[in-house]
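Troubleshooting log. The previous run stalled partway through. Resubmitting the same two chains, unchanged.
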Amino acid sequence: MTLSRSPSPVPGGGWSSPGLNSGRNSPSNMSGGPVTWESAKMRHHNPNTYPSFSTQNKGFFTRHMRRISSSLPRFNGAYVEKEKLKRQQPWFRRVPLAGRMRSIYGRMGRKLKLTLLLLLFLLLGTIIFYNTPLVYHWRRASFGGGGNKFVIILAANVGGGVMEWKGAREWAIERDSVRNKRKYVARWGYDLEVVDMGTKKKYAHEWRESWEKVDFIRATLRKYPQAEWIWWLDLNTFIMEPSFSLQDHIFNGLESHMYRDINEYNPHNFSHPFTEHYLDAEALSPVGDGKTNSVNMLLSQDCGGFNLGSFFVRRSPWIEQLLDVWWDPVTYEQRHMAWGHKEQDALEQLYSTQPWVRQHIGFLPQRMINSFPPGACNENADSNGNYPPDDTVHYNGNEHDFLVNMAGCEWGRDCWGEMYYYREFSYWLNRNPFELFKEEFLAVIWFKLTGQKVKL
Amino acid sequence: MHFAYPPRKGSNPPPFQPRSSKVPILRPSRLRTILLLVLTVIGCFWFLSGPKKETPYKEHAPSGNPPVVILTVVDPTKYSESYLKSITDNREEYAAKHGYETMTVKLFDYKTNGAPQSWARIIAVRHALSLYPDAKYIWLLDQNAYIMEYSLSLEEQLLDPTKLEGLMIKDQSIVPPDSIIKTFALLKGKNTAFILSQDETGLVTNSFFIKNGDWAKFFIETWLDPLYQSYNFQKAERHALEHIVQWHPTILSKLALVPQRTIASYARNKEDNSYRDGDFVALLVDCTPTGPDSCERQSEHYLQQLRYKSSAANRKS
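Second attempt completed without errors. Output:
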C-alpha cells in the first residue's frame, strides 16, 4: 500500500486506514466499517483525551476505574509500623554502616588488626597475581618488565602442504607449537607473530625461497614499532621452561652469556679476526667494540655452523642493512648450487667476508636458546641404537635447557613423536606443587605400602 | 572478684629507669618501627629499580678533523713520476688552501685476488675510512684528474646540506636512459651519505664523496663483496656499484646524484658534460698511459690553465 501522507506518531492515532496505524498490534474498530474523514472528525468529542476513536467509553470500569480505586483504603505496612520497627532493630542496624565499621575497628585488638591486615594483603596479592591481568600488563609495560620490547615470530605452516601432504601429525605439531608459544607470550607479556611459511609463487619466482624470513622480520619490525628484539623460531621448537623470561634468561646478563669471538666454538673454521691491513681496529678486533649494545644479532651454532632455527635480531640500522643485502641475485647466481641451506649459508658467506656484519653478531651457547634432541647433529648411533648426547649440543632436562629445536626431524626422524615427547616432558618438569605432592609423595607412599603404582 | 579497696602500693616508689639510649628517637620500642620503615623503603627501591638498562648504541661521530680527505690512488707502474707529481701537487695545493688532507696510495698496495686491479681503488676508500675516523668526508678522485678551481671550498659548493639539496637530481634513473630504479624524490640533503654523478652511460666512479660512519663501512664492504669481485662485471666495480644501488634500497636511500660538472667534468670537447672554464674538476677520461693520447700530453693543457689561474690570483692579491 502506498502512503500519500506520513502516519501520525501517536499509536493508533491519525487516519483510520487499517494499514497506517502501525503502532498497534491489531487494528481496532474494524467493525465500524469504512471510516471516512467526516466520521472520524465527529468522534473527536474531547480534544484533550487520546485522539483515538478506539479506547473511549468501552465500559463502566474503564470509565470509573480511577475514581473507584482512589477511594479505596490503603495498607502501607512499612509506613505505619516505622516507629515500632526502629525500636526493635538490633543496635548495628540502627547505626549507619561507616559508624558500625568504626566501632568494630575500635574494639579490635592490635594483634587481630595485624592478622587481618596480613590476611587482607594475602588475599589481595592472590587476586592480583592469579585473577587479574595486572601482572601481565606490568610485565609488558616498558616501566615494568619491558615485555613489549620482545616479539616472537613463529614460522608456521612450513611448505603449506604444497609439496607434501599435510596430515594429522603435521597439524598436531603446529597446534602444539603455536600453543606453547602463545602461552609463553601470554605469561611474559611479549608479542607473538605467527607467520605463514607456505610455499609461495612469489618467492619461487624470484628464487628467494627460505629468504621469506627477511620479509617477515621486516614486516614484524614495522608492525610492532615498540619492539626492540625479535626472536625467530622455527615450527619444530618447544619452549621447555616457560617460567624463564627472556630478560632473565638472556638479556639481563648478555655480557656473560654471549661470546663474540667465534674461535670459542668454530665448527666452520672461519678465520677470525680479519687480518686485512686496510681495516680499522674495531673490524680487526675479535670482539668488535666489546660492548653488548653493539650486538644486533644473537644466534647459536650447532655442529654444522650457524643455526637459524632460533635467533634474535635487534631493531637497528644495521639489521635493515643486513636484511637488505642478505639476498642478492649476483651472489645467489654464483652460489645457489653450493648453498644447501640457502639463507643460512648466505649469512655465513656475509659473516666470513664482511667485517661490518661480523662486528655486530654475537653468539649464544647453543643449549641456551637452541638445544637439539639427541637425534640431531649426531651421525653415529651406538650399538644399542642410542645416540650419545653431546654436552654442547643436546638437550639436558636435568639442567633445565630453555628450548628444544627438533632441527632436521623431517629428514628421517619422527617430528610428531619428538614434539609429543618434549611437550609431555616439559609438563612433567614444570608440575605445580599439588601435582608434585600427589606424584612425588602420595603415590610414592602408596607404592611403598601396597607395591602398586598409581596415577593420581 | 572485687575488693573494697585497691591493692596497697608500696610507700617507696621505684626510681625512674635510666634511658637506655641518649637519643630519644632510638628507644628500643621505636627501633623496631624504624627498622621496618627502612626495610620498606629499601624494598620499594628494589622493586621500582629494574635491571640496569644498557645505553643505546651510538656510532662514532666524526669530529671533522680534517673535514675532507682527498684520496688518490696512483699507478706508478704505468705513469711517469713527473706526471704523478703534478697530480699529487694539485691535490696538496688545494687541500692546504682549505684545511683538508690528502691521501695518496699506490694501486698495487691492495690485493684483489684475481679480480681487476681497479677494485683496489675501492679498497683504498675503506682504508681511508679506517685511517681517518674523524674525517667527515672521503673524496675519491681519480688519478687522471685535476682540481681546477682552488678558490672553491667543497663545503660551499657541494657538502653543505642545503647546497647539496639544491644540487641533487631527484627521481632520476640510476642507469640512463631508462632504468626503472630512480633516485628517491623525497630524500633530504642531510640524510645523504654518498655523493656522485652520472654520465650518459651510468654512474661515475671517478669522483665521489662518502660520509664517514657505520653506513660508509657497510656500503664499501658490501661493494667489495668477493662475490661481486669475482662475477666478471663488464666494468668491474662500476657495474657492481650500479647493481647494488639498484638492488638494495638501504644504499639507494643515501645516494645523491649531482650534476656531473659539479664534481666530474670530462676533459673532452664534445658533450654537455665536457669541461668548461670555471668547472671545478677536469677528469681526463679518454687518456691512455702512453701513445698520442697519453695522459701526460693531455694534462699539459690543464696544467697551463692552472698556472695561468694561480698567477692571476697572485697578481690580484
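Takeaways: Chain A has 21 helices and eight strands. Residues 78 and 443 of chain A are 63 Å apart (CA to CA).
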